Amino acid sequence: MNTVLVIGAGAAGMMAAYSAAMSGAQVTCLEKNEKTGKKIYISGKGRCNLTNACPPDELLGNVITNPRFLYSTFSKFNNESAVRFFNSQGLTTKVERGNRVFPVSDHSSDVIRTLETAARRAGVCFRLKTAVRDILVANGRFAGVALDDGEILKADACVIATGGLSYPSTGSTGDGFKWAHNLGLAVTDMRPALVGLKTAEDGCARMEGLSLKNIEIRILDGKKEVFREFGEMVFTRRGVSGPVILTASSLIGKRLQKHPLAMYIDLKPALDEKKLDDRILRDFEGEKNRNFGNALDRLLPSKIIPEVIRLSGIAPQTKVHEIRKEQRSNLVRIIKNFPLTLTSSGDFTEAVITQGGVSVREIDPSSMRVKKIAGLFMAGEMLDVDALTGGFNFTIAWSTGYTAGIHAAKTAAGNEE
Q1: How confident is the model at residue 130 (pLDDT cuts 50, 70, 90)?
Q2: CA distance 250 to 380
Q3: Which of 52, 43, 105 lies closest to 80 in space, CA to CA?
Q4: DSSP per residue over 369-409, as a string?
Q5: Per-residue pLDDT, 417
Q6: C-alpha span between 312 and 48 (Å, rounded)
Q7: Minimal CA–CA distance to 12: which of 124, 129, 86, 115?
Q8: What is the rounded distance in angstroms from the CA atom of residue 121 to the CA atom of residue 116?
Q9: Which of 258, 119, 127 is nearest to 189 (CA)?
């Protein structure tokens, strides 16, 4: 029949549908939502950081889990391939800080429209509001799918691209993992990643909304430093978030599941302790009779000053000229090591991606085929692969989707097992 079913019209799914159709298959893409690309729509705060413009040989260095698994598929379709694809389909792109690639329009809806239009032009038939209940297998081979309404759809091959567990409101509710488990495939433990972190301190709520730029954070597990990065962060009602925190969450998530971790913020990383002390002395020199509580406004953002003062142990009404050297030294240490206690990650409702998924040992890395089941393929967040923020997870989706689609089409045509 030369027919391919793709389950899921997200990033990986639509790319798989496109590549399968371009490879000659009759493709139907099944999506349980009322429209395509719901998670793409909210990505990058509605702008969609669709890939990263780093040199292709740096891609694997930004993959956290199972980078070697992606070597083959990245050799077929990488970040440069993604940019060429979108540009060729009429979507103009731009590169911003950190090599992040966005559509020039800054509208994620344009990315969705480009993908869907390309797929439709290639001949893909989209069936929206169509939920799959089960995957059908006969004699070790994919046979079809059962829909929620009882309809059976038969096909020669299938790509499952139903996403992970993050942002369940977009339809990522773990359907694919349930099917994988029922098919006897190994599924690793899953946790939220690229997500805000919760803290023990209630001071974060008082600083909610405060964004810090050009800071450095350190995270310790006991005496061992497990993360350090310079960049931006923001305080939230329950803890901390922002670029450096999202990155940290993917790297320390397993540790944080076991016990709390200590985090320290260097609010002035450009100054060592002596230079910072000299700066404080200069500020104090011009306002000797001012209360300490009102003397840090030129050094720190207003929202964090009460917390720094509280930690310093210096009474706010203390006159600046009364502050002793050892008190000032303690103030310097706090500014260079503002302490927080990380207690847990945010949940899947606020996580950008899911860490964990179908074990890569179950998947042929050159084709994305499920090794145990002929004609069945998986792509995107279904797989136990994930990367840092900056467009790398979308790159994984485009790449694995593209590869799965091509090989699904080959299988459907009888040219590949």
Answers
A1: very high
A2: 17
A3: 52
A4: BBTTSBTEEE-GGGBS-EE-TTTHHHHHHHHHHHHHHHHHH
A5: 57
A6: 42
A7: 115
A8: 9
A9: 258
